[in-house]
Amino acid sequence: MPPESNLQPPPGRWGSVLAWVVVLAATVFTIAAALLYEHSRTAERRVIEIRAQAPEKGNFYPQRIELAAGERVRLRVRNIDTVGHGFALPALNVGIAEIKPGEVADFDITVPDEGSEYEFFCTVWCSEDHMRMRGQLVVLPAQARR
Amino acid sequence: MFRTDRLFGVIPLAWRLELTGYPIVRQLLKSRWMPFLLLVFNLFVFTVILLATFIGGVGAGNYNFGIMIIWILWWVVLMMILVPGLARFWCTMCPLPLFGEWLQRLTLVGVRHDEKKGNLFIGFKKRWPKSLSNMWVMNFLFLGTTFFSAFFTTRPVGTFILLFSIIILSIVLSVIYHKRTFCLYVCPVSGFQALYSNFAMTEVRVKDPTICQAHKTKGCVVGNASGYGCPWLLLPYKFTRNTYCGMCFECFKTCEYDNMALNLRPPGTDLLVDENRHLDEAYKAFIMLGIAVTFFMSMQGPWGFLKDWVNMATLPGYFAFIALHAAWCLAVIPAIFLVFVWWAHRRAGPSEVSLKKSYINFSYTLVPLGLAAWVAFSWGIILPNGSYILHILSDPFAWGWNLLGTAHVPWTPVFTGLMPWLEIVTMVAGLLFALDFAYKLAVQTYREPAAAGRAAFPMMLCLTLATAGLTWLFIG
Predict the structure, then answer these.
(1) CA-to-CA distance for B72 and B79, rounded, in angstroms?
(2) What is the enclosing helix (H) or strand (E) of B279?
(3) Which of A55, B117, B119, B330 could form a cystine bridge with A59, CB 3.0-4.6 A?
(4) Do A11 and B109 touch (CB under 8 A)?
(5) Angle between the B355-363 and B419-446 helix axes, to the nearest 10 degrees?
């Protein structure tokens, strides 16, 4: 003789509402939160991304950056290589000894007066062509600001 | 020789520990919030994965959340813990077919049920073709995905394309076909879990078959107001092996008599269940073993030219990789195995058993061996690369975040000195299980102990040589 029935009722209306809330939190809210957080980090400054690879694989990209005088920007150097690279822009007093493969380094700068051209370069002996791993920051008139 | 009803002649294969005997486990599995909350957690993780692989910054190889979580963490956990320990527990919490299932049910956690019509679904509710109701589609799809392994495992967008394609395909098939047809017959990840879960140490089974015999309404099949009839289109009251049970636990919710059990058991028990054994499952075993070898050679081996082939450095090289990899998995391994089975068949002497039947039966010896090869391969993934996880948890989108303060933890391989030993121990353990089941399967196939003993020898030699070859590959 089978024992007595032992079924449990499914969640009611509030259970369904709760289910929707957690699903939306896991998806829509997660995406929105990530984008908003990143926006809040970068709202004050335009982010200029520079990808770093050894010269024979692509060098700094872009190698020439044109910015308007007085502009406040964040230089984001991303090492997409499989060896370490460094970054130095001595004229603006920014730099880092090493950015490990896959890592990112941010530098907040205020672009100085127009007409100047500043060199940035890698600070790690990354390959035989290491000395070629360099680029230029070119300052445009303030009117060129985005 | 060993008793065939005991693992290694010692542990009774009939031994079970009913985990649902603990009230907390039973209540958990009867609740509709399980596995819902697990699914939602993984939905959150996969949302981050999809976002990271689609718009996240381009990091170097392993510095992408999607690549790290899928190909380093998930794959390793799946092969080392989930499948051998908990059978198809990944299917319990896999979020990829979730949208299709919710669309069919039009509810997230509730049950749409009508006393006359039963569980309510939308969609065309068609039946999957009978000729494809096996593992062949999954076999070829999984093998097909490995042709693009370099793209999927090293390019974030590759991982995105793969996952997004699976989600879209599951939704489309859920609209056309009944219940979890996609998971049963199409999902590339489903097939090897199905086969390898026969080795797993857990199972979902009926507690007392006589209760099911007396019970006419069969809520586990047709559903009721508390849950859905088996979404995997099975008859839970007849479960004899893990292969196609996706462990969704709906049968725990629909059983009026609490007659379903989640059991702990000795590993490999289902390898001896001679039910619905076909060539598709044998080929799944060959393909999985073949892929393990190819992956190891191309990802962890010292052969640079092979990496170039797989990485599509040149088109001729890439086509050579596809041709050799497919031939290795679909022809070479099955042919080598056939030679040993033919030899075993001859040694067994005259019998009514066909060569094909022997071939299929003995192919299950490759389950513990294949699983061991994948676990050994996984050591080579997680120990050198596991430390990347700390980085990507802090900076999941490679936007320069440092959420947990671990974004700049350097790459730190751990216990890599132990790796060869762990690989040897893993392969030896896999071989011991394979040898034990080779003898048991020989007895099951040829019945007579003397014939079984003679037939077992070539198979044991085959498995030993395969293990020696794999071990040489891993540590050589």
Answers:
(1) 11
(2) helix B279-295
(3) A55
(4) yes
(5) 150
Burial zone of B42 (CB within 10 Å; 0-12 exposed, 13-18 middle, 19+ buried): buried
Residue B78 DSSP class? I
Q: What is the pTM of this model?
A: 0.91
Are the beta carbons of B67 and B156 closer than 8 angstroms? yes
Residues 93-122 of A with CB under 8 A from B: 100-106
The pLDDT confidence band at residue A1, using thresholds 50, 70 and 90, is: very low
Read off the pLDDT of residues B233-251 as tens digits, 9 standing for 90 and up. 999 999 999 999 999 999 9
Nearest C-alpha in B relative to A37: B401
Q: Are B33 and B279 in contact (CB under 8 A)?
A: no
Domain boundaries, chain B: 1-476
- Given a contact cutoff of 8 angstroms between Cβ atoms, the answer to whether B194 and B136 are in contact is no
pLDDT in tens, A34-65: 999 999 988 888 899 999 999 999 999 999 99
Chain B residue closest in CA terms to A3:
B257
Q: Which two tokens stand for residue A38?
A: 């990143």
A27/B contact by beta carbon, under 8 A:
yes
**A89: which strand partners?**
A94
Cβ B150 vs Cβ B312: under 8 Å = yes
How far is the C-alpha of B439 from the C-alpha of B390, rounded, in Å? 45
> 3-class DSSP state for residue B190?
helix
For B334, what's the count of Cα atoms within 13 Å in the CB-facing half-sphere? 18
Strand order in the sheet with A94-99: A64-68, A134-140, A117-121, A85-89, A94-99
Taking CB atoms and an 8 Å limit, are B61 and A82 in contact across chains? yes
